[in-house]
Amino acid sequence: MGMDNDQRLIRQALQKLSFLVVQDIRMTETAQLAHVVLPSTHFGEKEGTYTNRNGRVQKLNVATIAPEGAMQDREIFIRLLDAAGERFLTQRPQRSLMRWQMKCRLIADSTIRRLGSREFNCGW
Fold first, then answer.
1. Which of 11, 13, 33, 108 is the most exposed place for a label (fewest CB within 10 A)?
2. What is the pLDDT of residues 14-29, one digit of tens each?
3. What's the whole-model pTM score?
4. Contact at 8 Å (CB) between 58 and 119?
């Protein structure tokens, strides 16, 4: 819920929701209010790429083993799509990067290996 916010108002608003889903790495106060908690991995347990709020694409390398039951964001997303009846054929980080390269010309010539040593800005 955040330390700088009015936690009482936020808690009241969340408790009014008919359905709340939280994806988090631990059982936070917000997760305790959720109807469904999707156990996620933290950055040191993830493999693949991410785009930060400045539009920079960066590579993540697994540094530690995730706890049992925790899933990478990509896996959670694919399972949600499957549950909704959608097929998402890109299950490996390299294939996901290839699909992203079609949208972002600045990383079009990059490989997953090259991303390990550089950042790319998609310019948004």
1. 13
2. 999 999 999 999 999 9
3. 0.62
4. yes
